[in-house]
Hints:
By secondary structure, this protein is mainly alpha-helical. The protein has helices at residues 2-13, 24-56, 63-66.
Amino acid sequence: MEQALINQLCDLTKRWNExxxxxxxxxxxxxxxxxKLNEAGGFKLMQNAYYEATAQNRAASVVAAxxxxxxxxxW
Length: 75
C-alpha cells in the first residue's frame, strides 16, 4: 500500500512543470495523497514520497507546499 501511494504521487506529478500552474483538482488530489501517506506511515513516509517524486521531476517540489499542515509536515 505504501509504495502504491508513492507511485500515485509520482504519477500525479510527472507532467507538472515550472511554467504552468498546477490545476486545483490536482492540488486537491496531492493533498489527499499526503493525508493517506501520513495515515500509513507519518512524516517519514511523506518525506520518502516527496523525495521520490522530486527525483523523477524537479517541478514536483511544490508538493512540499501542498503537504503543509498534514501531520508533522511543515513547509
